[in-house]
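Reminder to self: tokens first, then the designed residues, so the page reads top to bottom the way the pipeline ran.
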């Protein structure tokens, strides 16, 4: 194993980047590493395990049918994080309220344990998304909602795990973005994508075009712009939309591109959740040189109002995000001048 770095070694080497030098934060990251391995193993067997694929018959707060693997992933992350005793509370897409864990814990986690789960049954990449904050309430007291309703700029770390052709864990602690590929043969994550940066521009736009007629004029005009022929500006772009944020985001991060889930007439605040989808992805993309906005406000500057708050999201290569914002602002001008 010469000249490869495992995630465990990386966490130890980067100890100085982690808040506090007590090693607590490293233990937290190790818990996420462990749970990711366990979930990866089940995801990769999902097609074979009839008892774990398919809906569990219940719904989460989003009113989305909970797939068994959703519930399994949620349980594994909660179990691993609880055992490390450094977490005082967890907010999860799968739980209506936040979960108090250990009043002596220093950190809180907001997570989507298995994003894109409607893709589980059709063998399309899915992912885990997590965001880590220091608690604002005193250590030793009960965790409060205020501990979770912090701006994205307060994040200590954020990351995602993509369960795809291989399992990768990509995360930042505010000192760049690093990607680790899981080798199931030896059971370790290996540093495969050091210091990830995203291209300033690309040729990929990711949006559910089925929402075209429900979208604003500005977004409709952007989609037409992306489809127009103009070799000087690399258009038409390629439409790539997997229906799994982690997969679309990861591809665009590497190749360059923009992902949009704007507000629509049926979802005025968009679909994606601020705390455990938009903020963590915004932290990662900004650390990689990209940008993340609602179209009118930087995602990480939003003051959260509630745990499962949805916000519109435009995220990816900086120049492409800027172009989307231009179309949204033009629409605003038309409305004000109209
Ligand atoms: P739609 C998955 O449910 C998710 O939260 C994201 O992972 C994905 O990008 C989006 O919703 C897909 O939503 O409405 O296009 O099916």
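Designed residues (338 positions):
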């Amino acid at each position: 194993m010469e000249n490869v770095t495992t995630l465990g070694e990386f966490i130890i080497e980067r100890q100085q980047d982690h808040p506090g030098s007590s090693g607590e934060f490293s233990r937290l990251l190790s818990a996420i590493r462990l749970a990711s391995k366990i979930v990866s193993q089940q995801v990769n067997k999902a097609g074979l395990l009839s008892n774990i694929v398919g809906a569990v018959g219940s719904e989460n707060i989003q009113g989305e049918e909970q797939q068994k693997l959703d519930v399994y992933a949620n349980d594994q992350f909660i179990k691993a994080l609880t055992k490390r005793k450094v977490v005082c509370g967890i907010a999860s897409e799968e739980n209506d309220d936040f979960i108090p864990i250990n009043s002596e814990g220093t950190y809180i986690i907001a997570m989507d344990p298995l994003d894109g789960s409607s893709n589980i049954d059709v063998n399309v990449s899915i992912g885990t998304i997590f965001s880590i904050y220091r608690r604002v309430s005193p250590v030793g007291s009960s965790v409060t909602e205020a501990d979770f309703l912090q701006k994205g700029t307060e994040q200590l770390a954020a990351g995602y795990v993509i369960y795809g052709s291989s399992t990768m864990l990509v995360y930042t602690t505010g000192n760049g973005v690093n990607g680790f590929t899981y080798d199931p043969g030896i059971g370790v994550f290996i540093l495969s994508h050091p210091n990830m940066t995203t291209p300033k521009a690309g040729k990929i736009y990711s949006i559910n075009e089925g929402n075209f007629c429900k979208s604003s004029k500005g977004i409709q005009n952007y989609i037409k712009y992306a489809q127009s022929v103009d070799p000087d500006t690399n258009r038409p772009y390629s439409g790539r939309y997997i229906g799994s944020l982690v997969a679309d985001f990861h591809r665009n991060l590497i190749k360059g591109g923009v992902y949009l889930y704007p507000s629509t007439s049926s979802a005025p605040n968009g679909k994606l959740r601020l705390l455990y989808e938009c903020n963590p992805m915004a932290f990662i993309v900004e650390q990689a040189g990209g940008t993340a906005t609602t179209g009118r406000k930087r995602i990480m500057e939003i003051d959260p109002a509630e745990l499962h708050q949805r916000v519109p999201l435009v995220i990816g290569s900086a120049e492409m995000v800027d172009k989307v914002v231009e179309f949204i602002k033009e629409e605003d001008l038309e409305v004000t001048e109209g």
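The pocket of 6-O-phosphono-alpha-D-fructofuranose is lined by residues 115-116, 118, 208, 243-245, 248, 271-272 (CB under 6 Å).
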